[in-house]
């Protein structure tokens, strides 16, 4: 995968509606799942009790939290694209989030996406709506589909 390097916000506007390059695969480990459980205080056994999940879960192994796959969007999008003139970016919100398929421990995920819309937001800022799909390697269904909204400051 070749990361898309965009010069500035003007050039970024030329990418509205176009498919972005695929991101790198990221392995979702049990350590990541446990760390997420500790950060969110969501210690449901299907995520963190490996022996119980292997024996009793319909998936036969632990699964990542749906919100873990969602929270990876910033990192996964950062793997796809960089705007050189941007001083910083922040998360603004989400629309239409769904989790069609669980992410089993040790699965690999990456982002596919497009820029749905770019709006002016302040003097040197834009609000970007991204159509994001967190794809699971060797799975027909994605882990997460979301409209992710961020602010970018130039």
If you had to describe this structure to a student in words, what would you say it looks like?
The protein is an alpha+beta fold and 154 residues long. Helices cover 27% and strands 35% of the residues. The protein is built from 6 helices and 7 strands; from the N terminus they run E-H-E-H-H-H-H-H-E-E-E-E-E. The protein has helices at residues 9-13, 30-40, 45-48, 50-56, 66-71, 73-80; strands at residues 4-6, 26-27, 81-83, 88-98, 108-120, 125-136, 144-153. The strands form 2 sheets. Strands 2-5-6-7-4 form a 5-stranded antiparallel beta sheet. The two termini are 26 Å apart. The relative contact order is 0.23. The mean pLDDT is 95.
The biggest beta sheet, please? 5 strands, antiparallel
Oligomer: single chain
**Ends distance:** 26 Å
Query: How many beta strands in the DSSP annotation?
Result: 7
Our Rg estimate from Cα atoms comes to 17 Å
Roughly how much helix do the residues carry, as a percent range?
25-40%
Can you give the mean pLDDT?
95
Regions with pLDDT < 50 over 5+ consecutive residues? none
Order of helices and strands: EHEHHHHHEEEEE
Strand numbers in spatial order across the main sheet: 2-5-6-7-4
Strand content: 35-45%
Apparent shape: elongated
Number of helices: 6
Helix-and-strand structural type:
alpha+beta
Question: How would you sum up this structure in a few lines?
Answer:
The protein has helices at 9-13, 30-40, 45-48, 50-56, 66-71, 73-80; strands at 4-6, 26-27, 81-83, 88-98, 108-120, 125-136, 144-153.
